[in-house]
Amino acid sequence: MSGVMKRMGMIFRAKANKALDRAEDPRETLDYSYQKQLELLQKVRRGVADVATSRKRLELQLNQLNTQSGRLEDQGKKALALGREDLAREALTRRSALTQQISDLQQQHETLQTEENKLTLAAQRLQAKVDAFRTRKETIKATYTAAQAQTRIGEAFSGISEEMGDVGMAIQRAEDKTAQLQARSGAIDELLASGALDDQTGTTKDDLSAELDRISGNADVEFELERMKAELAGGSSSDRQAIEGGAATPQQEQQQESPKFDKQ
Amino acid sequence: MIVRIMGEGQVKLDDSHFPTLNGLDDELLAEVESGDEAGFRRTLTALLEAVRTLGAPLPEDSLEPSELILPAPEATIDEVRAMLTEDGLIPD
Which is it for strands B68-70 and B2-5: parallel, antiparallel or unpaired? Predict the structure, then answer.
């Protein structure tokens, strides 16, 4: 009983030999194989492009979710500043649901990036081998009769068909992964579109934003009133800081000398 | 001898290392057949690590058939089982 790597080596070789045996003239096999190699190269390049497209789409979604998460955080802070802890809690609850989605997407993004890098390398390797094969093929066709060419062709052909098998599997794997992720990515799109995540278009205004807008409208008035009161009470905030800092200003001395100015 | 790590390319190593790899390889097959997922992962990682450290990568434009072929590092036990059948996962 031979192990995994020995058996896999045999399987690959058997496949290459079978293809070679099918040809009347082994030199025809060379041309046929070369055509196949070029097709495979195109397929790998398409594979790289597909994965890259999916990756970019994920990046867009990640940006949207991150923006949304930042917005919810701001809303939470604002709500808290206005003393609306219930709204702040709501904003933060929604944000934590988003955080889960974001880390999920980030993981998927990493997977795709890895797959993309692998395919890119596979494409480069295959390209180098295809070029070498073309050179070898021409040499063999020019130099040897069909009978003589048999062994030479066997070597070149086994080498390239093994590479093709390997790359073929890499494409297969990348396609499977991409399809899986696209399905999930579609689900996120739907979520964004449904307004559940309140997209950036601003066309859908969720209840949380609406409520915050309403009270912050009032709040701005409140803030303004506070500011005016402080001014009327004598001294902008910077003056107050100076007082707290213990720096004696002329104004301060004046205040100390004139008790009739009621600070309240 | 030449060893291919699927998805990574080919590595050339001295035949004297064969017994080391062979021992791990037999272990790997036993784990595939018994469905020992954890053992399979451990042995495959060890095998790949051994090949990478003991060998040197072949130039990209070489056209050599490999004597031994190893699954990719992230290959699952099911994938490997399928690859061991004649028409398993290897596309024509």
Answer: parallel
